[in-house]
Amino acid sequence: MTLLSAPVAAISPRMPLLSYLWRDKMAFASALFLVLLLLLVLFGPLLVGDAAARLGLRQRNLAPFTFNGGFLYVLGADTLGRPILARLIVGAQNTILIAAAAVFSSMLVGGALGLIAGYSERWYSHVIQRVADVIMSFPSLLLALIVLYTLGPSMTNLVIVLAITRLPIYLRTARAEVLELRERMFVSAARSMGASPVRIVFHHIAPLVLPTLVTISAIDFATVILAESALSFLGLGIQPPDFTWGAMVANGRGYLQTAWWIAFWPGLAIMMTTLSLNILSNWARTVADPQQRWRLQALRKTAR
Asked: Which residues face 83 on adjacent strands?
């Protein structure tokens, strides 16, 4: 048994994922934070009600950790006396929903186009590749700024723009996977038995490509959140009275010296979310790769 195979064999592939997650404390903490964030996105707005939009001039620019206005004001208040904690919860829902819609749309459309471009060798396959090259030739933020400035800022346009800018990643990944899978024996067997190209692509090849696309989407989620926050910061995201974390940072940028907490807490939320997503995606990549999984065994021995 080689040095590489010994640690891999020591970890049973049937071991629950929670065991692997517990060994990496950073990944475990990131998972807890994301679960808490998901619960806040699902149930938080129901708990805070309309507190995020309620004006309270007596609490205007209230400093954090003073408890003068109640628990919702534990993180302070903005220039109109609205509680930062309530606005963080509502803003989290808008930010996560926009990012999720953009990632899902780009994965669905880009994956389908990649399947077609990878399996077929007809003219439309080359057209699909050239369209992806054109999109990638523009800086993502610049392309988003041009489109949103032309069409106008709205939630629908923001999701469409973010999906278009991320589409080539899924297209090229799916195409590369299909180019390798279409030469395998099971595809040749299905073709010899009279299966149509549509059935081969979407019934036999697509299920094998989907896990890779899902992994990429988990990694890409953090990038989309940052892109959405940047566009909202520039005023091209969703418009008032709706808001996201990026818009909250923009509202507080003029008060950094007098009321730093207005921009600090949403900025911290953006950083913590993207950092947790990156840490958890790296952990998932380690667990999925048998040649890297031995690192978790080393972490357990170190803990002992």
From this structure: 77
**Does pTM surpass 0.85?**
no
The predicted-structure confidence for 140-183, as pLDDT tens digits, reads as follows: 778 888 888 887 778 888 898 899 988 999 999 998 888 888 87
